[in-house]
Every structure is written in structure tokens, then in C-alpha cells.
């Protein structure tokens, strides 16, 4: 009889696990479209190298504008 009880407990645990597995599968199925959208958005984003290049170009332009404006302020106004 002890063997029958043991088998019954194992079967009950297996049923419980099968229910959990079904929930996991359902959750994963819902996550797939979200993951696809995230992947699409990430592929449209610039790389770190592209951002670094752009940052460098912006800094260069900022320095150029600062120098240009400083030069304009030092010149006497034309009369």
C-alpha cells in the first residue's frame, strides 16, 4: 500500500508541475510579441560608436560657435 501512496503523490506532483509548465508556456507566448517590438526598436537605435561620434561633432560645433561669438564681441562695431 505504501508503494501505491508514493505513486499517487508522484502523480499529483506531476499534475501540479504540468499545470505550472502550461502557465509558463502561456506567459512566454504573450512575451514573444513584446520581445520582437523591443528588438525592432533596439535595431533602430544608434550604436555607442555612432553616439560618441555625434557627441564629438556637437562638441566641435559648440567650440566653433563659442569662438565665433567671442570674436564678434571683441570687434568694434562698424559705424
Describe the structure.
- The protein is 89% helix and 0% strand.
- It is mostly helical.
- It is rod-shaped, with a radius of gyration of 33 Å.
What features would you highlight for this structure?
79 residues; mainly alpha; 2 helices; 0% strand
| Residue-averaged pLDDT | 90
**Content-based structural category:** mainly alpha
Gyration radius from CA atoms, angstroms: 33 Å
| Count of DSSP strands | 0
Fraction of residues in helix: over 70%
Using the alpha-carbon principal axes, give the shape.
Answer: rod-shaped
> Distance N terminus to C terminus?
114 Å
What portion of residues belong to β-strands?
under 5%
Summed up:
This protein is mainly alpha-helical and 79 residues long. Helix content is 89%, strand content 0%.
Secondary structure layout plus pairing:
Blueprint (H helix, E strand, L loop, with lengths): L1 H43 L3 H27 L5
